[in-house]
Structures are given as structure tokens and as C-alpha cells.
Amino acid sequence: MQKPTIAGVGFTKITAHWKQSLKDLASEAAVKALNDAGNPEINAIIVGNMLSGIINGQENLGSLVAESIGLSGVSSVKIEAACASGSAAVMWACLSVLSDLFDSVLVVGVEKMTDVTDNEDVTSALATAADYDYEVFFGATFPSLNAMIMRSYAKTYNLSPEDFGYLPILMHKNAVDVSHAQLRFPIDMDGYLNSPMVSDPLKLFDCAPIGDGAAALVITKKDGAKNSDHLVEIAGFGSATDTLATYRREDLSRLRAAELATTRALSMAGLESKDFDIVQIHDAFSVIGYLNLEALGIVERGKAHEFVASGDAERSGALPVNPEGGLKARGHPVGATGVYQIAELALQLSDRAGPSQIENPNVGVAMNVGGTGSNVFVHILRRVE
Amino acid sequence: MQKPTIAGVGFTKITAHWKQSLKDLASEAAVKALNDAGNPEINAIIVGNMLSGIINGQENLGSLVAESIGLSGVSSVKIEAACASGSAAVMWACLSVLSDLFDSVLVVGVEKMTDVTDNEDVTSALATAADYDYEVFFGATFPSLNAMIMRSYAKTYNLSPEDFGYLPILMHKNAVDVSHAQLRFPIDMDGYLNSPMVSDPLKLFDCAPIGDGAAALVITKKDGAKNSDHLVEIAGFGSATDTLATYRREDLSRLRAAELATTRALSMAGLESKDFDIVQIHDAFSVIGYLNLEALGIVERGKAHEFVASGDAERSGALPVNPEGGLKARGHPVGATGVYQIAELALQLSDRAGPSQIENPNVGVAMNVGGTGSNVFVHILRRVE
């Protein structure tokens, strides 16, 4: 079967972009990706975004983005799957390229989260990823739901507070030399342990920051790609849903949808978990990062902290994880995150990742999680020789 | 080329559903469509919705809908393209079925618009389909933008207030015997002319009502369909964007994106406008309905009112338009509307439309418009013999 390829990549720095609108950010990333791909004719645009209607007063992002890059006329829509909106957009772009009707599709993930009057609005907006009728209405926030998952996971595997610190410490270390990363400073275990409690046992340094950013990809057929010197193949993809409400899960210490999405993506790619050379996980909260590593089949359940503590997840380790700093330190503009993950993987697999480049990876995987594990997307990328 | 088919159809009545949640409505429509299709295995679910994040405090509708119908696990996303979200979902379902990865995809269009504290909220929410930075911020509402279009169109073609009344009068007439329609009462020209001014020259009876509803389709490959006795083929589809802001258009008296989408859909279907036997237009406002008929190539520019006044658009006329009452009288739960249009066409083309059935149609077309013409989707359906 023909596989879709990534022909071009572009993204903005993630920060509080006070002078750039949602449209400005989307345009910057899109134009970079189009140039990187050699400016092929685009058959459709898919915008991955979660919060624009609530935070920015703007829906209809398909038309907004198409016009902003001079492509008014081109077919365009927005796809939303909570914090997995970006990779959802990538997956549906892949499906359409495989249909033979479209040759090249532009994916733009964008989120502008800081442009609101106070942070409480962002917290409310993010809570729309949870079950409004059965969770949010009764006062649950998104961090508090993830705190419940962290508590359950810690209890099941008898983990200490330190055990959750290894991942954010590595993420901050990785981001220091990454020019597009949001939090480019190291943290240590004392700093982690003494960071303010957000929702017991979830600390501030367990949580990804709020930021603005956009990332874009040009998805093409391999044969139709103009700039073939840095093509990367999307060997497999898969997605799955789980219950929207966290309390309706049988076991809070695993992510069933993440396991199912992994199985589907591996099956399409004809690969196994041991084939991964580099991993992008969704560490919006430390515990979710650990659950991702377990769902991907990389470590046994309850052992993710040991894997990270061992040094194996470092850039120079046996299986590098989030070499650009992940959601925790590179940043997490929610609807854009999945596109950042896949864009970073594509750069790694074409030896274009700069300071974060790891040595000669052939197969990479990205896991992007919507809600508290209710909607998960996995993409497996492979170097094109 | 293999074409996607519609294997099952389901929808709810459109009204103010005080006792049913967004989830309840989506489930009702989805289960009806699945049963109608013989309950095939579903590879993915696409939810068409515009306003759930803003009005209902709920994003992540993919997971919500999957779980609500017992299909948690299945891949699912939400697609948004303003008032064209429903048909955008149908088009992307078609693309994915043509990819050979998916055999059957469930599309659910849903909108719950009445569940807010006051109507001003709905008006603000609908304005997110326009350009926030350049229109809405300065006070434009969605009706006021459409009033500008109506004023321009009336001036260009020297139309009287009466000329805009023919379409809503026909729509109300058609809806009287349609059990799922929202406004099942006739209106006459006096009633139309004396209806309150909303935004001069736009009157109340030019505007579609606000309502709650959900519609669903099962899109399959023809060969894989279980209940083949009422299959309808999607012979062609096309979509196009135009400037997000209304003022940036060269000519307000035509819809460029609607013309382009029509050309693309006809090209894929290998058909011409004269092949249409039945038409579904997006009459959210009377003038937009007229502009749809012109963009579809059915009437000359400026002549749509004459076509409707002549009786040709009646159920028994030469080319029936919106035999179920259209957006004006059947109702317009925005993210669901495009799915209602295509579902109604599918029933017509399989002789299952009940009281609104027209005589032996072979080819039908549905046009669904997002924003003030900034994102348009056209689907052409054909009877399967």
C-alpha cells in the first residue's frame, strides 16, 4: 500500500505571542511548511484547533487560514479532538491523500491560549475536553481529573513524589537549546518537589504550560512530492476513543484508548514497539507521559519512572523521548501540539533537528492524547532512504 | 472510480428539546442511522458540530458520541466549518471511505442551540462564523452581515421586498406535513412583509429559526453495504472557501465559493446542473437561498425569485427545492443542517421521503454554506438502480 509522506514542516516559537493573532501564527507556520515542501498545489487544508471558538471568538478557521495564506478557494475545515486536535488533523489528511482524490494536503495546528482576560478562562475552556454534564458541572477541572489519575497510578504501583519528577526534569533539560521551546530553563528534583501543589498530588512542575503556537505539515503522496530530499513516510497511524468521563473507566492507571491506538498504528505499519528509535509522548501531566510510555509497549506497567530515571530516555539514551522538551518544556498550545510532535519527528528522521538531533533514527512514534485519555492518536514515521 | 454510498439515515425532530441533551440527540440520530444501515461495523465516527464548546461547554464530541452509542474505542473526531460543519463531516467521511482503510463511517451532525440563558448568547456564538478581528469586534452580527448581502443583491437586480418572500413562503408550505420540521405552519405574503425587521432589509421571516437537532448517515463502500435495498450513491462532492470577512469580497451579489464547490462536485460526478432532479439549498436567509440557486447553475443571476415565484420549485414543479421546508421551516440546527439536507436527499432518491416525496428523482444536489459564503460544500447524490 502507498503510504502518505511528510514533504514539508514549519512551526512558530511557543510563547505568549502578544503581538501575533491566531491568524498570524497559523500563517507563519503554514508558509514555512509550504516553502519547505517546495510549494506544491494544495488540494485541502485541515486546521487542528480546540479552543478558538471559546477563547478567540473565532470558528470557521478553515476559511480564516486559507485566506490568510493566499489560498482562499481551497477546501478547508477545522478538526477538533480536544488536546489531540493536531494529530487528528494529520490522520484525516493522511486518509484523504490515500483516497486518490487529493495529492497534497496542508495541516495547520494552531492555538492562541493567552489572549484572554484571566487564566481562569483558559482552565474553563480546557475543561470542555472533559464530560460537562457529569464532571465539569460538579466542579472538576482538567488538572483535578489528572490528579485523580496520578493518585490512582501512584497508589497502584507504590510510587513516591520523586518518581514523578524524573520526566519533567528531563523535559526541561532537553528544551534548553531548542529555539522554539517555551520553557528553556533546567529544573532539579528539589525544584520539582518544592513547586506549588496544583491539585494534590499534582504539582506545578507536573503540568505543561499555557502558550501560543502553530505548527504545519504538508502531507503528500510520495510520488507527487517536489522536495524529496527530506521526505518522511507516515508508515502507520491509528486512533481510538475511551469513555469521556474519567470516573467511568475500570482502571485509572492505564489508558485503554492509547493501547488500542498503538495496536492499530503498529498493525498498519507492520512494526512492533521494539522498532521505535525515538518517541514523542503527551506529557501534559507527568503521569500521562508515563502512561503513554506504557501504552506504547515500551516499558512494563508501573515501570515508566524507572525507564526515565535510568537515562535511557535521554537524547543519547537507548530510546530518546521528547528530545525537544515535550509538552512540559517545549510547550503545549493544545490544538497545535500533535502537529509539533509529528513535525519534530519528521525533522529527526531527516536529520534536520539541529541541537536536539539524535543519532540516526529510522522509526519514530508520536502519541497525542485528548481529554483524560478519551481520544488518542498515534502516528508512526519512518525515514525514507 | 468507486463512489461512496449512503447505507443508512436517521434524524431527530428539530425543536427546542428541553429534555434531551446534546448527547441524547446525537445518540438518537446515530442509532437510527445504524439500524437503517443494518448495523455494519463502524471504522470511524465524524461529528459535525459548530457551537458545542461555546454554548454547551463541551468539546471532544468524538469521544462523547462514540461512548453514547456504545462504540467507545472507535476512532472519532469533530469537524467544524461554521454552518457547513455537517456536510464537511460527510465529505471527509467520503474521502476516508475512498481511502480503502475504512469501509463504513458514521457521520453525526448535532447542534443544541436553545440550552443557553438568553438568545443573545446564540447570536454571539453564531458570529464566530464571521471574522472576529475585522467584523464582529466592531459590532457586526451574523444577521447584519447577511442584511448587507441582501441589500447589495436587491440593489444590483432591482428587487422588491415581495421578491424575497417567495422562498420563505414556499418553505413554510413544504414543512407543514413534515414530521421532523420545526415550523409547521404556512405563512403568506402579508405575513412575510409585516414580519418584524431584524436588520434592514432583513425581516424575521427571511431568517431560519434557532433549534436543536441531530442527523446521521452511514457512509459505506457500495460492495460492503449490508442493506442494499435503499443505497444511494454520492456521485460527487466539492468544497471551496472564500474570504472570511464579507467586506473583502469583490461582489456581494454572488457566492464565489458556492460556484467553485459546484464546479468541483459536478466534475467529480461527471454531471451538469441540468441533470438535477431535486435541490437542497441553504436558505438560512432568503437571499442566501437565492444565491445558492444561482451558484448551482440552476437559474441566471438575479432570476432566482422568478424561478421560485413561477412554481417550478414546488414539490410538483419542474425542479423541487427543499421539499421538507429547508432551513427556514424544517429548521437549522447549524452543525446538523448539512447532514439533514443529505439525509433528506437520500430518502428522496430511495423513495422513502413520505409526504414530501417527489416523483421519481434520479439526481439530487445539496448545498451547505458556512459563514457568509466563506466555506461551501456541495454533494451530488444519485439513485442506485
Describe the structure.
Two copies of one chain form a homodimer. Chain A has 385 residues and is of the alpha/beta class. Chain A has two domains: 4-117 and 210-230, 3-Layer(aba) Sandwich (Peroxisomal Thiolase, Chain A, domain 1), CATH 3.40.47.10; 119-209 and 235-383, Peroxisomal Thiolase, Chain A, domain 1, CATH 3.40.47.10. In chain A, 35% of the residues lie in helices and 19% in strands. Chain A has helices at 22-36, 52-55, 61-68, 85-97, 119-126, 142-157, 161-175, 189-193, 256-269, 286-295, 304-309, 326-329, 334-348; strands at 4-11, 44-48, 75-80, 104-112, 197-199, 202-203, 212-221, 232-241, 278-280, 363-370, 375-383. In chain A, a hairpin with a 2-residue loop joins strand 5 (197-199) and strand 6. In chain A, helix 4 (85-97) packs across helix 13 and helix 7 (161-175) packs across helix 10 (286-295). The radius of gyration of chain A is 19 Å and the shape is globular. Chains A and B meet through helix 2, helix 3, strand 3, helix 4 and strand 8 of A and helix 2, helix 3, strand 3, helix 4 and strand 8 of B.
What structural class do the secondary elements of chain A suggest? Answer: alpha/beta
Would you give the CATH topology of the largest domain in chain A? Peroxisomal Thiolase, Chain A, domain 1
- β-sheet strand percentage of chain A: 15-25%
**Quaternary class:** homodimer
The strands making up the biggest β-sheet of chain A line up spatially as 3-2-4-7-1-8-11-10-9
